Structures are given as structure tokens and as C-alpha cells.
Amino acid sequence: MLDTTTVGSLPKPDYLAETEKLWPAWRLAGQALERAKERAAVEWLRHQEAADIHILTAGEQHRIHFVHGFLEHLEGIDWAKKTPMGIRDNRYTVDVPTVTGPVSRPRPVHLDEVGFTRAQTDRRLKFTLPGPMTICDTIANAHYASRADMAMAFADILNTEARELETAGIDLIQFDEPAFNVFMKDVKEWGIAALHRAIDGLSCTTAVHICYGYGIDENLRWKETLGREWRQYEEIFPALNASRIDQVSLECADSHVPPSLMRLLKDKGLMVGVVAVTRDREETPGEVAATIRSALAHVAPERLYPCTNCGMAPLPYNLALKKIRSLAAGTALVKKTL
Q: What's the total number of domains in the chain?
């Protein structure tokens, strides 16, 4: 019980890429870049093992961005045709590439990376993929009849990728869907159906991550508009509880999400964010333990996986490391009392 993990992304070291940026540039190229990615992945695996994190990730060290790092390997996308697009219901605007034809995956995207990572640790290993709805909220559509149609096309590609990663030894595949917290009606109409298509045939544990975003200024300003209680989860959790997804990752630390909403996911494993991804400070183990205990009032310990609120890619490297250590130490405090 109370097996710890992180959402997925972790800061890239300064020898690999620009630091503290959501869309950093690589500092190397060719084989030197590939070796640096592997070095960074191993370093984060060792950091997590030393802290006693139970379910590890490589921190997405092999990709620049959690969505575009996958999409750049697909066909049907024109990367030169940039389209201004309001992401997360116009929370911020970015010039994004455009889908101009049927999307396809000519070859595996992350298989070599997973083969390398799997050989580096005996612990359970999680791999993150962008969810179909969030992909469609991060790329412009100039080909498909609707966003839902495009999501289903990407879901088929994700399913093929996920099956190969499972065969390569991944224990848990997580689909990142921050867009679920914005387009709640679409989640129920076609978002969960797209997720089901993405996980079809998988026997490993499956998860969906839904949060309030990275600890960047645009998201922090948005949170200030949400009032004293953040109840977005309330609209989608019943549908997710009825879904075929095994686990749901949600935000809880330093949050206005009522912990009681976790009761709506009575049949799921819950990766509960007990560490925030803001850059103001690291949580103490005691604070982490207090957040876990607040969650345990609504979730049995066998279903609770202490986690980070979101990815930590834009944070300073050492701050993220301190937060991971507090995550593990705070969880250990609670385990002693159970």
C-alpha cells in the first residue's frame, strides 16, 4: 500500500537541454545527444531509487515536450505550417504544427528508449504517453472532419505504441489528459471513448493523468480565477469511475480541490498529488504526510499512490529532487502508522 510514483516529467540537466523551460532546446546533436539523454534518464532512475520511490519513470528525458515529443515522429503533420492556437480553452496561445493529412506512425517512437530504460532498473516502470484529447488540444486540425475524429485516429496510433511498450517490459502506461479538466462535456461524449481505444488489448496497468497544469505563470493565473473550491473533477469522475482505466492521477497538494471528490472514484486506484509543482519551496515530509492522511479519509490505503500533482519538467533540477525526497519521506511517515 501507498506505493509512491511521480506523474512523469522531470527536469532536464543543463548538459542535455535548456533548463527550467517547458519547450527547451537540446544542447547537443547526433549520437552525443542520444548518450546524454541516456545519462540523464539513468541519473533520475538512481535518484528515485535512492529516495525509495516505488514506481519509476525516466522523467521524459528523451523528448522535449510531453506531446510534441511523440508527435514529431508521426506522418501527416506539417511542422512548417504553424497555426496560432489557444491551448486549454485559450489559457495560453502557441504557434503549433498542423495536421494536413491522415496521421500515421511509420515506426515505433519510444521502443528503443524503453528497452534501454527497462535494463537499468528492477523496479516497476511507468511510461507516459499524451492522451488523444490533449494531443488534439495541442495541434491544429486541417484535415479531419472534427476534433473527435482526429482523436480517434491518434488513439489508434497510441494503442499500437502502447502495446509494443508493454511487450518491452513497461508495467504501467499513463495517458496524460490535462485537457480533461477543461473540456468536461467532450470527455463524456468522446474523450473516454478515445482513451478506451488507446488502451485496447493492454494487460498492464493503465492510468490517466488529469491535473491543473504545470506550475507555470499561465496556469497559476488561471487557478486564481477558479474560486475557493475547484470542482472540475466532479463532472468527469463518475464517468471515469465507470471506464476501463485502472488508475486516475489527480491534483491535491496546495489545491482547492475538495478531497471528498475522490469518493467518486471508488473503483479506481488513485495517484494522489501530495507534492505541488510550483517553484516557491519544497514540501516537508510532515506536510506530505498530512496531505496523504487527508486523502486517506476518502480512499483506502491499498488504492492510494502518493504522487506529484503534475510533471516537474520546468522546475529547477535540485528543487524537483528535494520534492521527490520529501514525497518518499512523507509517505514513509504515514506507513509507520498503518
A: 1
Domain hosting residue 299, numbered range:
30-335
Give domain status of residue 4, yes or no: no
Q: Is residue 17 part of a domain?
A: no
Cα distance between residue 7 and residue 209, in whole Å = 7
pLDDT value of position 213: 76
Question: Is the CB of residue 44 less than 8 Å from the CB of residue 126?
Answer: no
Q: Is the residue at 190 inside a domain?
A: yes
CATH of the domain at 117: 3.20.20.210
Alpha helices by DSSP H, listed for the chain, are: 30-51, 68-71, 87-90, 111-118, 132-136, 147-167, 184-186, 192-199, 217-223, 232-241, 285-296, 317-335
Residues 20 and 317 sit within 8 Å (Cβ to Cβ): no
Q: Is the pTM of this model over 0.85?
A: yes
Residue 214 confidence (pLDDT): 74
Distance set, CA 248 to CA 56, 63, 273 (Å): 17, 23, 11
Residue with cell 522531470: 10
- Locate 275 and state its grid cell: 507534492
Task: Give me the pLDDT at residue 248, please.
Answer: 98
Question: For the chain, which residues score pLDDT lower than 70?
Answer: none
Is residue 57 within 8 Å of residue 127, measured between CB atoms? yes
35: cell is 548518450
Name the region of 52 (left: φ>0; alpha: ψ -120 to 50; beta: rest): left
Range 285-296 burial, b when 16+ CB lie within 10 A, else e: bebbbbbbebbb
* Best CA proximity match to 207, nearest among 253, 168, 172, 163: 172
| Cβ atoms of residues 24 and 36 within 8 Å | no
Quote the pLDDT of residue 226: 80
Give per-residue pLDDT as tens, 157-214. 999 999 999 999 999 999 999 999 999 999 999 999 999 999 999 999 999 999 887 7
Backbone angles phi, psi at 197, to 5 degrees: -65, -35
Whose grid coordinates read 491499498? Answer: 302
Is 242 domain-assigned?
yes
Q: Is residue 78 within a helix (H) or strand (E), and if so which, with residue range?
A: strand 75-86
